[in-house]
Records
---
Amino acid sequence: FFFPVSSGNPDETVARDIEGNEIKKEDFIKTRKPGTRELVQGPKGDPHYLIISEDGELRPYSLDAVCTHLGCVVPWEAGENQFICHCHGSHYDSTGKVVRGPAPLSLALAHVDVNENGNIVLKTWKEKDFRTDSDPWWK
Ligand code: FES
């Protein structure tokens, strides 16, 4: 369980590692392999996945790891190239879009940005969900 830590802006959360430390973008990228999905503390204290693309860049969105069925944390299964919930078997593709139920909705998105200290921040995603072209259900 993570405690939410506010940056002063309710729409912005400094990402923190399991020990509560802020995460420098440069360090994060340098020390992870392409294709990495790693859990950090994000908005509302929810665990969020930061993603390093195959080209070694940090993706500009994170995924809330809380399953939209009944709230289990969904692990990344690299061999399947999917997030697969072990509680009741829901599948989400590599962008977090639900592809098999019982989960009714895709994993929630947050913007990934960097603050003035070079630390990763997650910001509320208010725009359309690019995976479904619909308004975000998590707003
Ligand atoms: Fe994930 Fe039920 S909590 S499938």
Note: The chain has a mean pLDDT of 92.
---
Amino acid sequence: MARKFFVGGNWKCNGTAEEVKKIVNTLNEAQVPSQDVVEVVVSPPYVFLPLVKSTLRSDFHVAAQNCWVKKGGAFTGEVSAEMLVNLDIPWVILGHSERRALLNESNEVDRVSNWSKVVIAYEPVWAIGTGKVASPAQAQEVHDELRKWLAKNVSADVAATTRIIYGGSVNGGNCKELGGQTDVDGFLVGGASLKPEFIDIIKAAE
Ligand code: PEP
């Protein structure tokens, strides 16, 4: 089964309401390949989720940048997955290396029970926000190893169908060659997802 190209935009802790409206306008006006070719998901900071959800074009989806992985309750400051579902937010980024480094998150908080709902992002930490990008061959080698790991530890079907995307200084200039690798199924984009070049990155799906 072909794996649909996936492009995620991780806005991190950036933006004002005005800036968010500008990014959304740029995305709304963009000519991009259809939903059959690419799945686009943007991930604004929590406070802007309702604004983005209500103004973003309907063929793009919205993700939260984190969520509480257990049921809601007495967990001050947390937002549960159930609340995201209630707001019709279908995606969440879990286990980002910035959260692991700064907030001591571990593998324990993203144990997977249903792989059909998961996209794996391979992001070399030395490439995140540094302007240093993995070569297409490096990315392909790691994605291939990740797929082999899935085949051995989960199942051949999960290995064949799970999308493995690359993140780390992806931009309009390097996306096409990276995206052309057999096992690179798209991108998780940080800095460039706040800029118009995010549209060029979406077009790498073509
Ligand atoms: C990220 O934080 O997920 C990321 C890939 O950032 P950048 O594109 O800025 O390197």
Note: DSSP finds eight helices and seven strands in the chain.
